[in-house]
From TrEMBL:
The gene is coxB. This is Cytochrome c oxidase subunit 2. SUPFAM superfamilies: Cupredoxins, Cytochrome c oxidase subunit II-like, transmembrane region. Residues 27-122 form the Cytochrome oxidase subunit II transmembrane region profile domain. Its cofactor is Cu cation. Gene3D superfamilies: 1.10.287.90, Cupredoxins - blue copper proteins. GO terms for cellular component: plasma membrane.
Length: 301
């Protein structure tokens, strides 16, 4: 509880609180420090664990630092001209062996619990197949008529804050129209280098299994606010799960060094209400009845 309060306080300080916004936009904040606000239990538990470790390591560092200062002042040659003659102190040796073991045990228990919580896929309502390609993501809904589309980064020209100064209002309008067409409701661009032409759409408060693989090299599907980061490996199937508590749009990126455009394969996830998701499925069935048409990769996926 204390850890949660401290984390909330620090995230407010660093301007990372999004509660003021009508819809959660899970994107990084300029000059933001600390961890982003979690959007589900997985991320919340990970962040709590992070704070627990940070507090423990800070206390240890302060303790060792003070110990060194005290020894340097109290036992220097000037203040302590005559050295002690003893070589052992059994009690001290027991303490400096036992205390670190206890600290490690205190860390290991919540760590292993969290590892299993994230790793073991619970009962989920449906699955989504995610394929990493050079350099975009293909999403497939096997439980929803095999809806399939590929998410490609929105070019820099669509953003006013792009460093090349090549902002083109038409590119922005076109990108927003494309996302709006895909979603079936009005959408705006939120973040340069993070927005994609289509978004993964998932319902809120629903456990979803994510099957991950790749068509060429190793990628990693990572959305920090969902507490999810898992490698997409060619020829192998990895599985994880998400259950998101908040409606909004959340961003992530490939976090495996997969090649020259590694930095340009972002992940945009639109979390909607269950009713809106049912509506979107109908909308998407119409859009993607012919299979993936929005984009293909060099490999023809
Ligand atoms: Cu990648």
């Amino acid at each position: 509880m204390l850890i949660k309060r401290l984390a909330a306080f620090l995230s407010v300080l660093s301007g990372l609180s999004f509660s003021a916004l009508a819809e959660t936009v899970g994107k990084p904040v300029e000059k933001g420090i600390w961890l982003p606000e979690p959007a589900n239990q997985q991320a919340a538990e990970m962040f709590d664990f992070h704070w627990l470790l940070l507090i423990i390591i800070t206390l240890i560092t302060i303790f060792v630092f003070l110990l060194l200062v005290w020894i340097a002042l109290r036992y220097n040659a000037k203040r302590n001209p005559e050295s002690a003659t003893f070589t052992h102190n059994t009690l001290l040796e027991v303490v400096w062996t036992a205390v670190p073991v206890l600290i490690l045990a205190a860390i290991a228990v919540p760590s292993i619990k969290l590892l299993y919580f994230q790793d073991v896929v619970p009962e989920t309502e449906f699955a989504i197949n995610v394929t990493g390609n050079q350099w975009n993501w293909t999403y497939n809904y096997p439980d929803h008529s095999g809806i399939e589309f590929t998410s490609v980064i929105v070019p820099n020209a669509a953003f006013e804050n792009n460093p090349e100064g090549s902002f083109d209002p038409n590119a922005k309008a076109q990108a927003e129209e494309e996302i709006t067409d895909h979603l079936g409701f009005a959408a705006t661009l939120n973040a340069r280098l993070l927005d994609t032409n289509t978004r993964l759409v998932i319902p809120v408060n629903t456990a979803i299994k994510i099957n991950l693989t790749a068509s060429d090299v190793i990628h990693s599907w990572t959305v920090p606010r969902f507490g999810v980061k898992l490698d997409a490996v060619p020829g192998r199937l990895n599985a994880t799960w998400v259950k998101v508590d908040k409606i909004g749009v959340f961003y992530g990126q490939c976090s495996e060094l997969c090649g020259k455009d590694h930095a340009y394969m972002p992940i945009a996830v639109q979390v909607v209400s269950k009713e809106d998701f049912a509506k979107w499925v109908e909308h998407a069935k119409g859009l993607y009845a012919e299979g993936p048409v929005k984009a293909t990769t060099a490999l023809g996926r």
